[in-house]
Write a structure and sequence with these properties.
It contains 11 helices and 15 strands. With 349 residues, the chain is an alpha/beta fold. The chain has a 9-stranded mixed β-sheet. The protein binds NADP nicotinamide-adenine-dinucleotide phosphate (NAP). NADP nicotinamide-adenine-dinucleotide phosphate (NAP) binds next to helix 1.
Length: 349
């Protein structure tokens, strides 16, 4: 007997929210029951693209008017705390986009509330579900490169989109540009270096190219290290063109090198590769699936369906979301203080 689909309510129908909606609608085990979109224009767009979904202008109306299993929050980052709190209090599981919140104490509050309410909290680090970036984790777990000692995650891309009402270029609402994309790279590097435990120290540099927003860095690099001496480098420039990402991991006996390139971050025809050296031979990994955030988002929705049914853990938990946001905010602090900072001071480790 087929099971009823998992009932999704989507909050936010902007650039990324529309792709969430498509991924939910394309999943036969999921039902896009409701969409929240505040402006008339986005409400009209939502109703046209998804005529079977109820469209609301406020998430509280949706939570009061609809029975949902899971709320998927894809709104500007400063709104995450309030919407996620209301959704958990309404008894829903969450898929909460990164950054889960723009302050560490807010991340902690959400984790605690999810536990109190007995609900699952998944954070939108979909790179973990990538055929390409996920394969690197599996290579490390198989021991092919030995103990991981060094991770580099680097991105060179065109400037960020402004977002609805320009929120992404307003520090109060975006929190930090490190919380936008480098947050994924902190998460990946920390995931790959999981065998080393928790990071202990972090040092970062940042440079804006616009005098009117000196603290939103177009160029950003951070290094963080572990007790055993392993370390990671996370680096990004937004002052470039197209979208080109590199990951390198070196271990005690081998190494991997992966690259992803597209004219746009959401291209459906990216070029990408992954080369693995086990200390003796060099191999090119062959992929059956495409790599890229649009493909990873579909995997993320599928994972959330299983999570809501109690069949799987989130790919990235609230704890992972706290760490990724916390490392970003610590990097901002390191740039302000111009010195390396102990990680434990901020994350209570
Ligand atoms: N995981 C990833 O790879 C990834 C990629 C991109 C973005 N993100 C994250 O996803 C979130 C949204 O990013 P985006 O690029 O989609 O931004 P966006 O294009 O600006 O879209 C945000 C949408 O949220 C709506 N909104 C604003 N306040 C709201 C509220 N209180 N309740 C309900 N809806 C509200 C806006 O509606 P109106 O247009 O009607 O005003 C807008 O359509 C951000 O947190 C971002 O960091 C994650």
């Amino acid at each position: 007997m087929s099971r009823p689909p998992v009932r999704f309510g989507l909050v936010g129908f902007g650039a990324w929210g529309q792709l969430h909606a498509q991924s939910i609608a394309a999943n036969p085990e999921a039902q896009l029951v409701a969409i929240v979109a505040p402006s008339v224009a986005s409400r009209e767009a939502a109703a046209k693209a998804h005529p079977d979904a109820c469209v609301y202008s406020d998430h509280r109306q949706m939570l009061a008017g609809t029975k949902l299993d899971l709320v998927d929050i894809v709104t500007p980052s400063h709104t995450h705390l309030e919407i996620a709190t209301d959704a958990l209090n309404a008894g829903c599981h969450l898929l909460l986009e990164k950054p889960m919140a723009i302050r560490v104490e807010d991340c902690r509050a959400l984790i605690a509330l999810a536990v109190r309410r007995g609900r699952q909290l998944a954070v939108g680090h979909e790179l973990r579900l990538s055929a390409q970036w996920g394969e690197i984790k599996r290579i490390i777990e198989r021991g092919t490169i030995g103990e991981p000692h060094y991770v580099l995650v680097e991105l060179s891309r065109k400037p960020y989109r402004p977002g609805a009402a320009g929120w992404r270029y307003d520090q109060q609402r975006v929190g930090s540009w490190v919380l936008e994309e480098p947050i994924h790279f902190f998460d990946l590097a920390r995931w790959y270096l999981e065998p080393a435990g928790d990071p202990v120290e972090l040092f970062a540099y940042g440079k804006s190219r616009a005098a009117q927003r000196p603290d939103l860095f177009d160029n950003f690099s951070a290094m963080f290290r572990y007790q055993n001496g392993a370390y990671a480098v996370v680096s990004q420039t937004l002052a470039a063109f197209e979208h080109h990402q590199t990951v390198k991991v070196a271990g005690s006996k081998g190494a991997v090198w992966a690259g992803w390139s597209g004219a746009l971050d959401r291209t459906l025809q990216p070029s990408f590769f992954l080369r693995v050296f086990d200390g003796e031979k060099l191999e090119e990994v062959q992929f059956e699936k495409q790599s890229g955030e649009v493909f990873e988002l579909r995997e993320e929705i599928a994972r959330c369906v299983r999570m809501a049914r109690g069949e799987a853990a989130p790919a990235a938990s609230g704890h992972d979301g706290l760490w990724s946001a916390g490392l970003c905010l610590l990097a901002e602090e390191s740039i302000r203080q111009k010195r390396p900072l102990p990680v434990g001071e901020m994350l209570g480790g």
